[in-house]
User: Which sequence fits this backbone?
């Protein structure tokens, strides 16, 4: 087995056509408007936001065989794709700013707070990935990395040696990277 079907068989799922594994119409009905608003807030351009949504569903349909609801929810998967498409679109505009000037109408710019929206999506993705870790690893990562607490304090609270906590953080971060990779999140 090679390609996408090999991954499906390894996961115990069977699909002969990407359209069978991914119902684009239902996904669009459920999440299209949210994805559009996200892209619009990120890019501040109606046309670019529409292009992003179209590209998200095109990429999702093409990669439908890699979608596994046991790894990530549909919404999380689509927003991960959207984040990557928005980054690609922003880079394209940065390289060719004259293209944006051709499509913008004077005075119709939407205020853009890209940092806030990206943080929200990133938080959803990280929360989904953390949910896939064991309780010990998740607790160690949340306490030390997300809350910024010192190792000694966390280890004492958990009643374990500092070395054990460091080991849990190390292997937990390794598992977190793998979970994010499985979810299709690009660095």
Assistant:
């Amino acid at each position: 087995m090679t390609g996408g079907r090999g991954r499906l068989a390894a996961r115990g799922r069977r699909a002969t056509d990407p359209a069978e594994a991914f119902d684009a119409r239902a996904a669009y009905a459920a999440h299209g408007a949210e994805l559009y608003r996200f892209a619009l807030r990120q890019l501040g351009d109606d046309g670019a936001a529409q292009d992003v949504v179209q590209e998200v569903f095109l990429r999702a349909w093409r990669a439908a065989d890699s979608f596994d609801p046991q790894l990530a929810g549909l919404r999380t998967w689509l927003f991960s794709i959207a984040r990557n498409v928005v980054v690609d679109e922003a880079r394209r505009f940065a390289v060719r700013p004259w293209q944006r000037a051709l499509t913008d109408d004077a005075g119709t710019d939407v205020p853009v707070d890209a940092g806030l929206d990206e943080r929200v999506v990133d938080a959803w993705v990280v929360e989904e990935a953390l949910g896939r870790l064991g309780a010990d690893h998740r607790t160690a990562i949340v306490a030390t990395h997300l809350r910024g607490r010192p190792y000694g304090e966390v280890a004492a609270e958990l009643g374990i040696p500092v070395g054990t906590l460091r080991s849990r953080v190390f292997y937990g971060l390794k598992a977190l990277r793998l979970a994010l990779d499985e979810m299709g999140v690009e660095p």
Observations:
- The chain is about 75% helix and 0% strand.
- The domain at 131-187 is CATH 1.10.10.10 (Arc Repressor Mutant, subunit A).
